[in-house]
Amino acid sequence: MADLLGRSGNLQEAEDLVQSMPICPDGGVWGTLLSACKIHNEIEIGIRVAKCAIESDPENDGYYIMLSNMYGSMGKWDEAERARELMKERGIGKRAGWSAV
Predict the structure, then answer these.
(1) What is the pLDDT along the chain (101 residues), one digit of tens a residue?
(2) What domains can you pick out in the chain, each with its CATH number?
(3) What is the pTM of this model?
(4) Contact predicate 18/33, CB 8 Å
């Protein structure tokens, strides 16, 4: 349901739904909502969601990168750098991208 709301651009509703879940949402749920925030350029909600995603799955490098990119898109370069530094402090490296041809 959160995915459908997010894809349709109803991000505040999706965030409210996830926050009201009777069980603690995992990184996958937060990651789905975070991707929707990126697609719809909802930076403010995206930053809140990214923090929740990192809290629920601190080993996932993608959440830190998306958080850093969101801060960068707002011109908040100190915060963007802090997200990258947090990765280093926790020993999390950015995985190199690759493709198969």
Answers:
(1) 988 999 999 999 999 999 999 998 988 899 899 899 988 988 889 889 999 999 999 999 999 998 999 889 889 999 999 999 999 999 988 777 777 87
(2) 2-89 (1.25.40.10)
(3) 0.79
(4) yes
Distance CA 79, CA 98 (A): 28
Q: If you write DSSP's letter for every residue of the chain in order, what string do you get?
A: -HHHHHHTT-HHHHHHHHHT-SS---HHHHHHHHHHHHHTT-HHHHHHHHHHHHHH-TT-HHHHHHHHHHHHHTT-HHHHHHHHHHHHHTT-PPPPP----
